[in-house]
Design a protein that fits this description.
With 342 residues, the protein is α/β, with parallel strands linked by helices. The chain is 33% helix and 16% strand. Residues 1-19 form the signal peptide.
Length: 342
């Protein structure tokens, strides 16, 4: 950790751990629901940990990318890396320094002459912080937020500023979230909170996650996922995912968007879509694109773009719920067994 990072992180750590965050008030109102009523859908490319994979997955139709973020023992963000075990038929060991990864992503998606400008609207960061010590977790949030400001959002017009989903593993990792928010607020970047969303990515009880958000005073921008590696999807029941969708559809539930992971084959992608999810993490984005734009779903779904807010909640109508339940009689959705396309 450089002296600059150490001073930033130490200052934040002292302040963060002694006080609760103020209530997050989002100044940007949710955009009105589109006249056609279709729900924006997120095709989330999985385990995109190299600059080559950024371009590859965007070419294949992804409008969101998921990357795995590793941290040093003291909490300093290092870069992208997953490691073993990982999904079947994927390389587990690709890694990229965080500054290089974010710089490339900004250059191909957010600048005036970017080749994928307007296509990608969400960067999903899977934060590998569970093994960090309690004191290192806020440091992780601070140093990550610092890099987002410096490398992803610098010199980007607000209209094309990338939205970022901070996905911690478990409720016990909440100080990572706290650290990132506190850094942005204390360093005068509060306006950037409109581009930040939150997730607890593993399988903590939904009630525990709801309590965490209440304690952190976060009242919006909340995603919730459920799933398992594509190698083991066939053993994962759908009860928790269905409960998350039900909370999303309710008036009082904490969830704004629901995603399913990791689904690769068209047959199972369609089953997942019929559960009412807002996005799918996949190794095969072209398969998800084909399903979402097919005659079966094109009247209900649209591929999300930068014009769509990833924080806006779209509830299903009672009729849509009945249709989905009638077309989905399974309690298991398998993953896939295809190798990623080049």
């Amino acid at each position: 950790m450089t002296v600059h990072y150490f001073l930033i992180a130490s200052l934040a750590l002292l302040k963060i751990c002694r006080a609760e965050l103020t209530q997050l008030q989002y100044s940007d109102p949710a955009p009105p629901r589109r006249a056609d009523g279709r729900r924006p859908f997120y095709i989330i490319g999985h385990m995109v940990n190299s600059v080559e994979e950024i371009d590859q997955f965007l070419r294949q139709g992804s409008n969101a990318l998921e990357a795995d973020i590793e941290f040093a023992e003291n909490g300093t963000v290092v870069g992208t890396y997953h490691g073993m075990p990982c999904d079947c038929f994927r390389g587990c060991f690709k890694r990229t320094p965080i500054s290089k990864f974010l710089d490339h992503l900004r250059n191909v998606t957010s600048m005036r002459d970017s080749r994928f400008r307007g296509q990608m609207s969400l960067l999903f960061l899977d934060l590998k912080t569970t093994k960090l010590s309690k004191s290192a977790k806020p440091v992780a949030g601070v140093t990550l937020a610092y890099h987002l400001v410096k490398h992803l959002w610098k010199d980007v017009h607000p209209r094309y500023r990338m939205n970022v989903l901070l996905s911690i593993g478990y409720v016990k990792d909440r100080d990572v979230t706290r650290g990132a928010i506190s850094y942005l607020m204390k360093k005068g970047h509060g306006a950037l909170l409109r581009n930040i969303g939150f997730d607890v990515g593993m399988n903590d009880p939904l009630k525990s996650i709801a309590r965490m958000y209440k304690k952190l005073r976060i009242n919006g921008h909340r995603w919730q996922g459920d799933g398992l590696s594509n190698c083991l999807r066939f053993i994962m029941p759908l009860d928790r995912l269905k409960a998350a969708v039900k909370l999303r559809d309710s008036e009082s539930g904490y969830i704004d968007k629901v995603y399913h992971w990791t689904i690769d084959l068209p047959f199972y992608i369609a089953k997942s879509v019929r559960l009412g999810v807002d996005g799918i993490i996949t190794n095969q984005p072209h398969n998800v694109l084909g399903v979402v734009t097919s005659i079966f779903f094109q009247k209900r779904l649209k591929v999300a773009t930068m014009k769509d807010s990833p924080w806006q909640r779209f509830r299903r109508s009672p009729q849509e719920v009945l249709e989905d339940e009638g077309n989905n009689d399974t309690n298991i959705v398998a993953g896939g067994d295809e190798t990623p396309s080049e």
